[in-house]
Design a protein that fits this description.
single chain; ten-stranded mixed β-sheet; two-stranded antiparallel sheet; elongated; binds S-adenosyl-L-homocysteine; binds iron/sulfur cluster
Length: 356
């Protein structure tokens, strides 16, 4: 039915309430929960644990699948799959699965899923394809959950499962704080999908008030901060949010987070040739991060249509890492994954006109 709620938007108690209203015993809610989050069913017909009459009733009052996959792109090495989804109001979002080979990852194969929290983004970072398209709307918690269930279902058919979830797709998760946390709680539920909090990573542009709130909640979720510059003038030029929360305020909130949670924080750094990949910048960054329990994740910029910056080269990336490490700040240079499928943040939805 148009305008009826999507089933993934309900938490377990809301589902119980709904079934009680239908005059059903409370164990029916648990059967549905198991069907959704352990069997990955997403159509009423699949819920064979329920009487047919109840299935028909549910089909009338709820909608089941909020996402319509409209495009897949697999990288040429077969290790990255990007899916573009259409939402019920025709908005587009994307989610990317990255397989990490056991031979290069300490013997452990990882399947990391990168999901979206908003359609578009209001933060306007100039180098980002999602930022360049502007803000459409927040995703509901169910739309966030459904991205995970979609891939969980696909992998399950191959006898595999998602091992890590990162909120690094389209949107700013802390600008949609409530729905993002509700989605994580639903995925974390031990009666359902049971995905451990420590296997989630939230990446934020640096919304200071939300970083503090998140710290106070003392969750086990990993936190990554998109920093990309060591001085305010440089950061404000590429990330407008810096005019509201400057680097000192941001790093103060990061220190608060580490104090509250005793967890290490990650800083993300897109290496842009000649802009933020020099030894001088690395030294400035190391000075600012001194004494903070952290790690820098640097990745060569994924060039986008709306920004003239280019990716750093191998030597500069290696020198950047070395300079940071000599100053006592651990740094990893990440490979760019799925570069041939525009797997960078927001790039597929932005390029959909070209693809179709
Ligand atoms: N809004 C959140 C999460 C989504 S973006 C955030 O900004 O942190 C995920 C990461 O991709 C961020 O670190 C972001 O800065 C980075 N990113 C965006 N566009 C990029 C590009 N063109 N090249 C490399 N990294 C990019
Ligand atoms: Fe939004 Fe993150 Fe892109 Fe910035 S980098 S525009 S916060 S999605």
């Amino acid at each position: 039915m148009i305008n009826s709620p999507f089933i993934y938007d309900l938490d377990q108690s809301e589902l119980e309430k709904l079934l009680t209203e239908l005059g059903e015993p409370s164990y029916r809610a648990n059967q549905i929960w198991q069907g959704l989050y352990k069997q990955y069913w997403n159509t009423p017909d699949e819920f064979t644990t329920l009487p047919k009459s109840l299935r028909e009733q549910l089909d009338k009052i709820l909608r089941f699948e909020p996402l319509q996959p409209i495009k897949y792109l697999d990288s040429s090495d077969g290790q990255t799959r990007k899916t573009l989804f259409k939402l019920h109001d025709n908005r587009l979002i994307e989610a990317v699965l990255m397989n990490y080979d056991p031979s290069t990852h300490k013997g452990q194969g990882r399947r990391t899923l990168c999901i979206s929290s908003q359609a578009g983004c209001a933060m306007g970072c100039v180098f980002c394809a999602t930022g360049q398209m502007g803000f459409m709307r927040n995703l509901t918690s169910g739309e966030i959950v459904a991205q995970v269930m979609y891939y969980a279902r696909m992998l399950d058919a191959q006898g595999e499962s998602v091992t890590n979830i990162v909120l690094m797709g389209m949107g700013e998760p802390f600008h949609n704080y409530g729905n993002t946390m509700a989605a994580i709680d639903r995925l974390n539920d031990s009666d359902g999908y049971n995905f451990g909090a420590r296997r989630f990573t939230i990446s934020t542009v640096g919304l200071v008030s939300k970083i503090r709130k998140f710290a106070d909640e003392k969750r086990q979720i990993n936190l990554a901060i998109s920093l990309h510059a060591a001085e305010d003038a440089e950061r404000s030029a590429i990330m407008p949010i810096n005019k509201k929360y400057n680097i000192s305020k941001l790093l103060e909130a990061c220190r608060y987070y580490v104090d509250q949670t005793s967890r290490r924080i990650t800083f993300e750094w897109a290496l842009i040739a000649g802009v933020n990949d020099t030894e001088e910048v690395a030294r400035k960054l190391a000075a600012r991060l001194k004494g903070l329990m952290c790690h820098v994740n640097a990745i060569p910029l994924n060039p986008t249509e709306g920004y003239q910056g280019q990716a750093t080269n191998r030597q500069s990336a290696a020198r950047f890492k070395e300079t940071l490490e000599q100053a006592g700040i651990p740094c990893t240079i990440r490979m760019r994954r799925g570069i041939d499928i525009q797997a960078g943040c927001g790039q597929l939805a932005g390029f959909v006109d070209v693809l179709e």
